[in-house]
Amino acid sequence: MTFDRSIKIAPSILSADFANFGAEIRAIESEGADWVHVDVMDGHFVPNLTFGPPAVKAFRPHVKTVMDVHLMIAPVDPFIDAYAEAGADILTAHIEAGPHIHRTLQAIRGAGMKAGVALNPGTPAEAVEHLLDLTDLICVMTVNPGFGGQKFLDLSSKIRKLRSMIGDRPVHIEIDGGVDPTTAPIVVSAGANVLVAGSAVFRGGSVESPAAYGANIRAIRAAATAPVHEPA
Ligand code: DX5
Ligand code: ZN
After folding, report:
1. Is 61 exposed, middle or buried (0-12, 13-18, 19+ CB in 10 A)?
2. Can you tell me the distance from the alpha carbon of 182 to that of 161, in angstroms, rounded to the nearest whole number?
3. Percent composition of the chain: helix, strand, coil (DSSP 3-state, to 5)
4. Strand partners, 94
5. What are the residues facing 70 on neighbouring strands?
6. Rounded distance, CA 84 to CA 204, Å?
7. Using 50, 70 and 90 to split pLDDT, how confident is the model at 2?
8. Model-level pTM greater than 0.90?
């Protein structure tokens, strides 16, 4: 994976049809997804439970782009090798999931994956100050993690702070939660370049009629790249 700071749309399969993950992954990629965002939840770190390494391994043959695995689990370290074996390209751990995020990021890279660190809405940008050379992606949660379809939390000042901290390092800023054509320009103008979207991509479509997925992805991308009109 070579780094470039272009805008990427990463649909979250949390909003997909749980009875048809393979077909849904193929559908969003054929409809323009740049990455596939996989939300792993353990029912402990977040109040929801999704899937684990065996499911992620089953998703892998259907993903032709990038499998961006977001771990909303605690602890993380015992599972790193399992997600590497499952084929994750990027593995993102929450900074709040344990006391040793520095070691976790080292272990993720050591297992051959790109390393991401996720920040819950209440965690300040400064928390990653000593991690910037150990991470390939910073995921800014713009909802409290656990569910799709929640209301967007505007954390633009945090995104701007992160963008200035990162400088010209090859580190993506990923936004996760409540991204749609209205919120996308807000976060991109603050410095983000990877946009996770679940409900805003999957709404109105289905495996049988995925055209809405493409229209939704194009709408988010168009909004993200349109200039934000500063209030007069
Ligand atoms: C929430 C997940 C998000 C979620 C986004 O805990 O990490 O990726 O699926 O869903 P929307 O885009 O519907 O807010
Ligand atoms: Zn996520």
Report:
1. exposed
2. 22
3. 40, 20, 45
4. 118
5. 39, 92
6. 34
7. confident
8. yes
Q: What is the rounded average pLDDT for all residues in the chain?
A: 97
pLDDT at 226: 86
Question: What amino acid occupies position 55?
Answer: A
- At residue 176's C-alpha, the angle toward residues 185 and 45, to 5°, is 160
| CB-CB contact of 55 with 47 (8 Å) | no
In angstroms, rounded to a whole number, what is the distance separating the alpha carbons of residues 229 and 211? 30
Give the Cα separation of 33 and 60 in Å (integer). Answer: 15
| DSSP string of 66-86, one letter each residue | -EEEEEE-S--GGGHHHHHHH
For the chain, domains (ranges, CATH) are 8-225 (3.20.20.70)
- Indicate if the pLDDT at residue 5 is higher than 80: yes
Evaluate whether 93 touches 62 at the Cβ level (below 8 Å). no
Bridge partners for 90 per DSSP: 68, 114
Closest residue by Cα to atom 4, ligand 1, is 148
C-alpha 232 to ligand 1 mean position (Å) = 32
Residues with CB under 6 A from ligand 1: 12, 14-15, 37, 39, 70, 72, 143, 145-146, 148-150, 176-179, 196-200
Which listed ligand is nearest to 139 at the C-alpha?
2
Check if the beta carbon of residue 8 is closer than 8 Å to that of residue 194.
yes
